[in-house]
Amino acid sequence: MDDVWNNFDLVVRAFGMTVGLFLAAGIASLAVGLPLAAMRVGPVAVMRRAAATYVTLVRNTPLLMVFIFVVIALPRIDITFKSIESFQEDAFGQVFISAYFFRATLALSLYTSTFVCEAVRSGINSVPLGQAEAARAVGLTFGGTMTQVVLPQALRATVPPLTSVLIALLKNTSVAAAFGIIEAAARMKYFNNRTTEDVQVFLLFALVYVLLVEVVSAASLVLERRWKAAR
Amino acid sequence: MRFTRTRATLVCASLLLTLAACGDAGSDDEGSDVSADTDAASELEDGTRMKEIADDGKIVIGVKYDQPGLGFKGATDDVPSGFDVEIAKILVSKLGIDPESDNVEWKETISDNREPFLKSGEVDLVLASYSITDERRAEVGQAGPYFLTGQQVLVKKDSGISSVDDLKGKEVCSVTGSTSIDNAEAEGMKPRGFDTYSECRDQVLDGAIDAMTTDGSILLGYAALNPDDLEVVGEPFSEERIGVGYSPESPEMCQWITDTLQESMDNGDWAKAFEATLGKSGAETPEPPQMDPCKS
């Protein structure tokens, strides 16, 4: 364990990477998942089917496969996302987001956005049909019906399932360990190879994961309380 | 007329068979010839782990499957081949076990698995480009070194990278649980760890990463497989001392391994093993390294 305490900056940096992946992929999957859900419940048949196909295809694929696709298969057809690095070098003279980080974020977001989409859709479906009908009856468009009447009520019902999705995402970041990202799980393996106290190292890393997840669920609890409405 | 034709066909077929048999015999000679030394087994002291293995008649050796020239197993190979494997055969034969027989199990041991496999007894010996370090010696037993190499970088041809300094702040890949990753980090590179070297090599070939870094001997093997696309550049920036890993529970193995290796270095078996594997790429056979004394 002394080895871990003496190199504690490595542990902090590893969890920093885990949190970084979680935030980047979390924001990206919310940004993709919400419009995806709108497409799935929208009135345009083509968009509805396209979104449904995407969700069926990606949600039914193991995350590891999505990673292999993005990290190993795409580079083989010359899609390496290296241009992201050179763009940053040209603009800022420094690389902040490496190609590996971007690919890991992309794989996680592709996968998680489908779950976000379905969580939001379940929320939308929980709003009684009468609400949407009433909104249309007073002359609101589809956009108006969604943003003014349905989504505010839907998001409230979406918070608990969405929290589960985000917690799963936080833990799924550990898959990136097998694809070159030195995040918490990779760092744990690193320490386990150098020490005989495997169990203590494992418990320490597991504990920090639990703490991180607790932060996410606490945040969701705050949101739930704030948005609570008398029914 | 018909009769002669049949006979001609038969003669041709038998000729072909003979030729095929010749080809077979040839490939058997690829590694150096090491046969079981039954006398040596009886000389082992009672109560030692070596005696136990010798009496058992079976041994499990942890080797790499993805390092051409050191430990490599192609899709159609029955057993792995390479310098590590040849050294393992020398050790195995000293236990009275025929190294070519099924009594030797070659278990793929990726870098991350070397210590766990030794500690859990999953393998008896590890010969998997296993660098000797103080951290590892605190955890498992390491005897040797039987080979010296240094860390270099493998890049795509015409990449414009000519030395380690060109890679500062850049991403390089290696395998997790190897000393190469720590060294790369110390040199200011951003290490990206994969499970096996072949995954890492593919990332370089596909242009997903600028370079791969690990022991020069491993990289040369890869460069030799893809001479048109890959090259090894830069001076070695570390010294890796490759040794044999054994279980921490049986410290008596150290002296036996060291003695056996010393004998092979003295009688030329070590040099033969090198010539049959790494030496094939044209590398000159180096002087055998000085081995560490065992702690008694």
Task: Report on the architecture of this protein.
The complex is a heterodimer of chains A (231) and B (296). Chain A is mainly alpha-helical. Chain A has one domain: MetI-like fold. Chain A has ten helices and no strands. Chain A has helices at 2-6, 8-41, 45-59, 63-76, 83-92, 99-125, 129-137, 142-172, 184-194, 198-226. By secondary structure, chain B is an alpha/beta fold. In chain B, a hairpin with a 3-residue loop joins strand 2 and strand 3.
CATH topology of chain A: MetI-like fold
Instruction: Indicate the CATH architecture of the largest domain in chain B.
Output: 3-Layer(aba) Sandwich
**Portion in strands of chain A:** under 5%
Helix/sheet category of chain B: alpha/beta
Any idea how many domains of chain A? 1
Question: How many helix segments of chain B?
Answer: 11
Classification by helices and strands of chain A: mainly alpha
Spans of chain A with pLDDT under 50 lasting ≥5 residues? none
Q: What key attributes describe this structure?
A:
heterodimer; A: mainly alpha; globular; B: 296 residues; alpha/beta; D-Maltodextrin-Binding Protein, domain 2; 5-stranded mixed β-sheet; 11 helices; 12 strands; ArtM/GltK/GlnP/TcyL/YhdX-like (chain A); transmembrane transporter activity (chain A); membrane (chain A); cell membrane (chain A)
